[in-house]
Amino acid sequence: MKTPDVARYADMFAAMGSEARVRILRLLLSAHPNGMVVGDLQAELGIPNSTLSHHLEKLKNEDLVSVRRDRQFLWYTANAETLRELLGFLYAECCSRSKAIRPDQIIQLAK
Amino acid sequence: MKTPDVARYADMFAAMGSEARVRILRLLLSAHPNGMVVGDLQAELGIPNSTLSHHLEKLKNEDLVSVRRDRQFLWYTANAETLRELLGFLYAECCSRSKAIRPDQIIQLAK
DNA sequence: TTCATATTTCCACAATAGCAGAAATACAAA
DNA sequence: TTTGTATTTCTGCTATTGTGGAAATATGAA
């Protein structure tokens, strides 16, 4: 495996470094692969539209979410490919490059 | 699995949301489980001592690293247990609670 | 002691992030 | 058209973060 783009992963982590944005991602993952419209996200999260919009922009900048328009609605979806890269990076660092964590210990926690 | 403490994971992500700190963690994981002394980290990373110290403090606050003193040296180590929780959280969100990512797709990237 | 090394803390500053009300824009329906 | 709904952008404010020089602290060696 080649040297990872550390700066990019750091930016992705930073984009996930706020409770609001983690909640957004969780909702979008629950609704995957359809995603959700902004209004439903707002109703679920209870945060002002402008604030929500900023959070979505930040996630979009790191490609953690994608948007598509359907009529007057914007549908946001979690970007599985990017999340896979992030998970792959963490996995590689902790379980492959280093042996700090045993792979079976990860899945175990998810039960 | 019970509801995760989203705020805590967000803080952990935030702590990893800087290139310098990801580099620190990578070094510490490479040197796991012995860890490294601050001076060696500094030599490797080429950043001023005070700046490095701040980054280490941030990682320590989220329990991503631990410290022990040996004589005049402080040995920092990556905290495998915390990283395991973080990896477990991401895995659970993406692969268990949602099926956005297939587990075998993660490991594949690490090759 | 005295001196050297390791590391943190103090201090200050610039840059970025988070927040949210209000206005603007995009689209659809009547 | 006009009106309504969805969402972003504008604006401004406050809080947090990143940075690093200089001083302080901790420890060990001579």
Walk me through the structure.
The first copy, chain A, has 111 residues and is an alpha+beta fold. Chain A has a single domain, classed as Arc Repressor Mutant, subunit A, CATH 1.10.10. In chain A, 61% of the residues lie in helices and 13% in strands. Chain A is elongated, with a radius of gyration of 16 Å. The mean pLDDT of chain A is 94. Chain A binds a DNA duplex (30 and 30 nucleotides) through helix 3 and helix 4.
SSE topology sketch:
The structure is a homodimer of 111-residue chains.
Chain A: H1 6-15, H2 19-30, E1 36-37, H3 38-45, H4 49-61, E2 65-70, E3 73-78, H5 80-97, H6 103-109
Antiparallel strand pairs in A: 1-3, 2-3
The structure holds a DNA duplex (30 and 30 nucleotides).
Spell out the helices and strands of chain A N to C: HHEHHEEHH
Mean pLDDT of chain A: 94
Largest binding interface between chains: A-B, 51 and 51 residues
The name of the CATH architecture of chain A is Orthogonal Bundle
Widest sheet of chain A: strand order?
Answer: 1-3-2
Domains counted in the coordinates of chain A: how many?
1
Q: Tell me the number of helical segments of chain A per DSSP (H or I, 4 or more residues long).
A: 6
CATH superfamily of chain A: Winged helix-like DNA-binding domain superfamily/Winged helix DNA-binding domain
Tell me the major beta sheet of chain A: 3 strands, antiparallel
Count all strands of chain A and give the number.
3
Tell me what portion of residues of chain A adopts beta-strand conformation: 5-15%
Stretches of chain A where pLDDT is under 50 for at least 5 consecutive residues are none
What is the subunit organization of this protein? homodimer
Structural class of chain A: alpha+beta
CATH class of chain A: Mainly Alpha
Give me the Rg of chain A, rounded. 16 Å
